[in-house]
Write a structure and sequence with these properties.
Layout lengths: L9 H5 L12 H8 L17 H14 L6 H11 L59 E3 L22 E3 L20 E3 L20 E3 L20 E3 L7 H10 L1 H10 L12 E3 L3 H6 L4 E8 L16 H4 L1 H15 L3 E8 H14 L2 E7 L2 H4 L5 H4 L3 E8 L3 E10 H7 L7 H7 L5 E9 L5 E8 L7 H24 L10 H4 L24 E6 L7 H8 L1 E2 L13 H4 L2 E2 L4 E3 L47 E3 L2 E3 L2 E6 L3 E7 L4 H4 L17 E7 L19
Parallel strand pairs: 1-2, 2-3, 3-4, 4-5, 7-8, 13-14
Antiparallel strand pairs: 6-21, 7-22, 8-10, 9-10, 11-12, 12-13, 14-20, 15-16, 17-20, 18-19, 21-22
Length: about 700
């Protein structure tokens, strides 16, 4: 971006009309002179020194005023490019072999973190998916329409289809208004609409969250819409030359653009809530009525741990809506309203599990299992208060319906370290062993029917630069589940639902129903399996392909060329026949088709981007368009997987209203307490094929 260099001294800034120290045409002085009285020097009280913020504002104001001529910025840019000496232009052989571009996943994380702000992201471990929202490919990304006396921009203008634009100049025209359609230019980083005839700023401009420079100089604007408070990356808001409200002008003069944006954000009225999310029935009412099957319901929710919910990461969210005391009540109300058998929550820290969720959900009839991430064990010497801030996975279950037979912590780093086929290479230590995300597996048994269910809860590593680590973590979990399922299948079933006082608690006061004849399981794959969690992987990823098909090629691009023993020498396999509960409208998994090869202007093939650990839905049959919604990322990352051989989907919780999302920058906000949305599914149990034998009674072990 080019700005003419204007050398302006502090004295010249003081001479700006806003800060003129006195009036040279003072009538009192003229009157004294006419009557022959001596004129004594007047004592003037100077305004306080200009703040650094306002000095920069005035410098850019003068730069803007100097750009009156038609297409001024385009001409300056052209002249600047012509002034480059020919000797400075490298001469290269167009036919020479070019080294392959570095993998996209190995690039440095961009500032366009899903929740980035103009401030650097300082947290060392912030488990938010990174996805740089790049504009569509185009040979030019700047458009200068300044100084050409445009009098109107219709809503149907083709300008709004230029979604690749990063810089747009509409300054020094005669525009009385800006259409709301400008909000379609989501990749704009600089917008100059100075020196027009504007009396208002469209609130839809708050959707342009990539804006860093926004110039409104020399218009007729008296106030600013609160919706601009979502411009969390804005560095300069140019307002000089407008009759702006004194309170707003004082804020930007004294404390700068970011303080004004924060004020607009935190004082913005709460918008109307969206319509309630509807349950989407997969079965018709007649099909549901004809079935006499046992029903299991599951909820999955990454609740956004309080220590990650900082203004630095979520600068577009009002502070009051980011506060944990506000968010936790919304989360609790939401999960209790859906009344599911199993609640699989991620990013639950120890303190909130013990002090909030276990207490309130316990009163609602739930018991729980919680394991923090691996770092909890290694924080030797840290205070207990800090250790209790470590988050992890929590699984709650209705204690009047289910018995917890056993629970298991799956520490990926520990499992990887114990594998003899994993060479202890630098990649292994730097990539896999340093990640402390976990999974949990609960072996559950129905009190009434004896039906057994394996419920796994997982939070996969977030960083897309480690697609290989995501694959390894999911593969390790499936291996662990296979071993646990074999043990679970060999356990004899309970023939009675009577418990000890410690097991049943308040259930002893309720009427007891006779237990139906329990099923028996002759193989691990006969036990219903549910895996819920935040997989930080989109439907086009290797993780999704592996879970959907039960296999993955040893040379899959998501391994990124790293070696992981049997996983990369033979490929990945699992025997469970899994499907995403929200993939109820699609047939078998279809791998993504090869991308179309595009040519550069010189005729060379453009580099093909590798599959990413995060991205969009990619059309793989997922019912939802997103489960994670932030300014720089909207896509599916969360899933509830189930074994199709012994479970079927009755209904799923639908998505968020699209019309509501069109007006929302990102989550969390006043209505959605986390950057993820919750998923909920109702399953029907298919009985195992072999129910002939009756094994002996299972010992009455304590249940948690």
């Amino acid at each position: 971006m080019y700005y003419p260099q204007v050398q302006t001294s502090q004295n010249e800034l003081w001479q700006h009309s806003l800060y003129a120290p006195h009036n040279p045409h003072n009538p009192a002085i003229n009157s004294n002179a006419l009557h022959g009285h001596p004129i004594h020097p007047q004592q003037h009280v100077l305004s306080p020194p200009l703040t650094q913020h306002w000095q920069q504002q005035l410098l850019k104001y003068e730069n803007s005023r100097s750009a009156r001529s038609p297409h001024h910025r385009a001409k300056v840019s052209m002249l600047a490019s012509r002034s480059v000496p020919k000797a400075a232009i490298p001469i290269t052989n167009p036919n020479a072999a070019k080294p392959p571009p570095p993998p996209a996943a190995e690039s440095t994380p961009d500032v366009n973190h899903p929740s980035s702000t103009v401030a650097p992201i300082a947290e060392a471990e912030a488990p938010r998916p990174i996805n740089q929202q790049k504009p569509p490919e185009n040979n030019w990304m700047t458009l200068d329409m300044g100084g050409v006396q445009i009098k109107s921009l219709p809503k149907t203008s083709s300008l709004w289809s230029f979604k690749f634009l990063v810089t747009l100049y509409l300054n020094h025209n005669s525009l009385p208004s800006i259409p709301s359609e400008i909000a379609q230019l989501r990749h704009l980083e600089l917008l100059d609409i100075s020196a027009n005839q504007l009396t208002a700023v469209p609130p839809e401009l708050g959707m342009l969250t990539s804006l860093k420079e926004f110039y409104l100089f020399d218009n007729h604007i008296a106030t600013l819409p609160h919706e601009l408070g979502t411009l969390h990356q804005l560095q300069t808001l140019g307002v000089e030359g407008n009759p702006l409200d004194p309170q707003l002008k004082s804020l930007i003069q004294e404390k700068g653009t970011q303080h004004l944006i924060s004020y607009l954000r935190d004082s913005c009225p709460v918008p109307a809530p969206p319509p309630a999310r509807e349950h989407r029935d997969v079965l018709s009412s007649s099909e549901r009525a004809s079935l006499d099957a046992e029903v299991i319901s599951v909820l999955c929710y990454n609740i956004l741990c309080s220590k990650y919910a900082t203004e630095r990461l979520y600068g577009y969210t009002p502070q009051w809506a980011l506060d944990w005391d506000y968010r936790k009540e919304l989360i609790l109300t939401e999960v209790m309203n859906y009344n599911c058998d199993f609640l699989c929550l991620q990013e639950v820290d120890v303190a909130q599990y013990d002090g909030f969720f276990l207490t309130h959900l316990g009163k609602a009839g739930y018991n729980g299992v919680h394991f923090p991430k691996s770092r909890y064990k290694t924080m030797v010497g840290e205070s207990e208060e800090k250790r209790r801030l470590v988050d992890g996975c929590a699984t709650f279950y209705k204690r009047d319906r289910w018995i917890l037979v056993s629970e298991h912590l799956v520490e990926f780093s520990r499992l990887a370290m114990g594998r003899t086929d994993f060479k202890k290479t630098e990649d292994m230590f730097n990539r896999v062993l340093g990640k402390d995300t976990i999974a949990t597996v609960c072996l559950m048994e129905s009190r009434e029917t004896g039906t057994r269910v394996l419920v796994a809860n997982i939070h996969v590593h977030w960083d897309p630069r480690f697609r290989d680590v995501k694959l390894v973590q999911v593969a390790l979990l499936l291996d662990e589940i296979e071993g646990l399922a074999e043990e679970f299948a060999r356990l004899p079933v309970r023939l009675s639902n009577e418990e000890t006082h410690e097991e049943a608690g308040d259930l002893l006061d309720k009427p007891r129903r006779p237990r139906t004849a329990p099923s028996t399981y002759t193989s691990p794959t006969q036990i219903p399996l549910i895996i819920a969690g935040d997989f930080n992987s989109v439907p086009s990823s290797g993780v999704y392909e592996f879970l959907s098909t039960g296999q993955l090629a040893k040379d899959h691009p998501d391994f990124m060329g790293h070696m992981y023993g049997r996983y990369t020498s033979e490929g990945l396999k699992h025997p469970f026949g899994l499907r995403s509960a929200y993939n109820v409208v699609a047939g078998p998994y279809q791998p993504p088709s090869p991308p179309e090869v595009k040519l550069t202007p010189n005729g060379h093939p453009r580099p093909i981007k590798e599959s990413s650990g995060v991205g969009g839905n990619a059309g793989h049959g997922e019912l939802l368009t997103m489960t994670n919604y932030t300014p720089s990322f909207q896509g599916v990352l969360d899933y509830i997987w189930y074994s199709v051989g012994n479970l079927g989907v009755n209904a799923v919780l639908g998505g968020v209203d699209e019309r509501y999302l069109e007006k929302v920058v990102g989550f969390p906000n006043a209505h959605f307490p986390a950057d993820h949305i919750c998923l909920a599914t109702e399953f029907r149990v298919k009985p195992p094929k072999d129910t002939s034998s009756k094994p002996p009674l299972l010992p009455q072990t304590p249940s948690q």
